[in-house]
Design goal:
Length: 200
């Protein structure tokens, strides 16, 4: 079996990013984004998707975390797309519902080659809340947008309930991770590309 790994970098006037992924890992991670709450979310993504993940990033976080978080997510999406290769033998679809105390989130992933994100259910005002000091709630959607569009995924993320912004965000990331874990898994019953078109 070909190794499903990738290393991608991106450097702009706003950030410098390096990402290494192994889709057939055990969930090990080595994350330093200079945005502590995002480190926490990426560590959870790696652990629950069984993806080995290394992220090194610096950026203009003295202005805002937005540039660095978005650029990391772009590069992570690109690395996932590269590591998936031709997608032969994958399960393709995954879905998960994950609680975190009072919060509950659902995610569905299709490794479709067609970027599309549906993201809803976050409570009013969530986007303005500062989580961990300087990670605004609005960045959660930005992360999913950047990963989805750069990895070529169709993703639905829905917050079913929740009160604490930290819990809501973490439930979303963990649900996405668990759904992605199912979708990227190699299925011994699948022959070739799991699409009637013959390509994803």
């Amino acid at each position: 079996m070909t190794e499903r790994t990738a290393r991608r970098t991106r450097s702009t006037s706003e950030s410098t990013v390096e990402v290494v992924v192994d889709l057939d890992g055990t969930g090990r991670s080595d994350i330093d984004t200079s945005v502590p709450f995002f480190d926490h979310m990426l560590t959870a993504f790696a652990k629950h998707s069984l993806t080995d993940l290394t992220v090194r990033a610096t950026g203009d976080t003295h202005i805002d975390a937005h540039h660095t978080v978005e650029d990391i997510s772009i590069v992570l999406g690109q690395a996932i797309r590269e590591a998936l290769g031709d997608k032969a033998g994958i399960s393709r679809y995954g879905d998960a519902m994950v609680p975190l105390d009072e919060a509950l989130a659902q995610a569905v992933v299709d490794i479709s080659g067609r970027p599309f994100l549906v993201h809803d259910g976050e409570p009013a005002g969530f986007e303005f809340h500062l989580i961990g000091g300087h990670f605004t709630g609005s960045l959660v959607r930005h992360v999913f947008e950047a990963i989805t569009f750069n990895a070529g995924l169709t993703v639905h993320v829905r917050v079913i309930g929740g009160r604490d912004p930290h819990h809501i965000a973490e439930a979303e990331f963990k649900a996405f991770a668990r759904a992605f874990r199912q979708a990227k898994a190699l299925d011994p019953l699948v022959e070739g590309i799991p699409s009637t078109k013959g390509a994803l």
